[in-house]
Design goal:
CATH architecture: 3-Layer(aba) Sandwich
Shape: globular
Structural class: alpha/beta
Order of helices and strands: HEHEEEHEEEHEHEHEHH
Number of helices: 8
Number of strands: 10
Low-confidence stretches: none
Strand content: 25-35%
CATH topology: Rossmann fold
């Protein structure tokens, strides 16, 4: 008999995230950085921290009466896939990545918000799950709710938002000018390191995933790059992305007549 990791881990204390069934609800926001879990918690009612093991920090609370957790994934697709797998094992059904991303389109500025509909799979993790031509696509209805939320909040919060397809890459320092030019030829909006794994694993599990990120810098505007110092525009972008994700969840839950009809017909 061969070990089936997924079946063996289902319904128990999860090895990496150190959570068990009942600890969280159906919705999880997934930042990369553990510190950003605390940012998420400040947007929630009655927040409480749950666990902090390796790169996986977690907290939970409510927004508009809906239970929402924040769980960090660490950097890259491998650890993000583990987070989705283990959260799915304990009952999470909806995942929204909230993080940072680098822009590939002129005029997109640090602090802007990007909502991605799909990802070009340049990571290695998803190759372990699906065939080479398989697309990494966000959930349509959850993404539409994020777009509605961004449109609603952009004026009052003062941010610009964009919608497009990204690339997910494992190699942060391999993003050379030649590689950036290849991505631009594909008319991609941005590049980051986790979403293709989140989209793919959620899809294979029959679950729902989407992404809203803040822009850290623009590859076409080298003066926008800030590695070593403060990046106040990005920090504000994180706050805006969290607000969009939470309001998107509220819209998804309360304005979902068409979604429920379509999902009921599957």
């Amino acid at each position: 008999m061969t070990l089936d990791k997924r079946s063996a881990a289902a319904g128990t204390l999860q090895y990496h995230i150190k959570l068990r069934p009942g600890d969280v609800g159906r919705f999880a926001l997934l930042p990369g950085d553990p510190d950003r879990v605390l940012r998420i918690a400040r947007h929630l009612d009655a927040p409480r921290e749950l666990a902090f093991h390796r790169e996986y920090r977690s907290a939970t609370g409510t927004y508009a009466g809906i239970e929402v957790a924040g769980v960090s994934t660490g950097i890259g697709a491998p650890s993000a896939a583990i987070a989705v797998e283990e959260l799915a094992n304990i009952g999470v059904t909806h995942f929204i990545r909230v993080g940072s991303s680098a822009a590939l389109v002129p005029g997109i500025a640090p602090g802007d918000i990007i909502i991605n509909t799909a990802s070009m799979r340049l990571d290695g993790t998803t190759a372990g799950y699906v065939e080479p031509g398989f697309p990494a696509v966000a959930d349509h209805f959850l993404t539409a709710a994020l777009i509605q939320a961004a449109a609603k909040l952009s004026t009052s919060r003062g941010f610009n938002f964009h919608v497009g397809i990204n690339a997910t890459s494992d190699a942060f320092y391999a993003e050379t000018p030649d590689k950036v030019e290849m991505l631009r030829r594909h008319r991609l909006t941005n590049i980051e390191m986790e979403s293709s794994a989140i989209f793919t694993v959620a899809h294979l599990r029959g679950l729902h995933a989407a992404m809203v990120c803040a822009v850290s810098y623009n590859f076409l505007e080298p003066e926008s790059v800030e590695y070593g110092g403060e990046n106040p525009a990005l920090a504000q972008g994180w706050e805006d992305a969290i607000a969009v994700a939470l309001e998107g969840i509220r819209i998804y839950e309360t304005d979902g007549e068409l979604r429920r009809k379509v999902e009921g017909e599957r």
